[in-house]
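Worked problem 6 (solution included).
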Amino acid sequence: ESLIGWDFLLAMLCWRALTTLPGVQRRLHYCPFVAPLLQWYTLSILGLACLLLDLVLNDFIRYRGLTSDRIAQNIETVCESEGLSAEACSRLKADLRIPEWLRVAAVSSPIFGVCAFVALTLVLARFIRYNHRKKVRGGLPTPWSLARRLEWGVIILGMPLVFIVSAMRALLRILAVMTGSAWKPGVSWDAQERTEIATYSMDLELGLAFQFNG
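Solution. The predicted structure is:
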């Protein structure tokens, strides 16, 4: 999943570079209805929105039903599969214990993430529409294209969108470890834990990569 995020980021960076060419923009504007849909900023927002929707519907919802008893059962399964002693299992439970208020806050975070994503997307849409109206009034042939300085404005304003998605993906990795949900039959818990933590780091690094390479 992290690889998909990296591939998407690279694809949008390449497409953005191509759409800065006047010839490409003229061809995109042959069809006025298609031109705004194929701009790099539109594709980027739509792609991030799909990733966010997938996270909320397919991942975060299943954690909402994880009660303390269910989490304890998951960890018991880990202990049995690893052949841990009662003392070692108790230490594992203590290490993975999540305060109830923190668990509720974690599984409720998509509400705030989605609200922030929608609010920022509306701000970007108003900014782009304003630029479009100014270019139409000026009689420019490619009104949906952005000047270099305006592109940087959109990137800076849109940067939190990437961090919202990346942070929510990273949170899922931590929840998978802390609730014992990351356990898989036939895979040692230590190896699976390291994999989830490594993926957590990659998800956050994806947001940092956008920040420094946008």
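Discussion: The radius of gyration is 22 Å.
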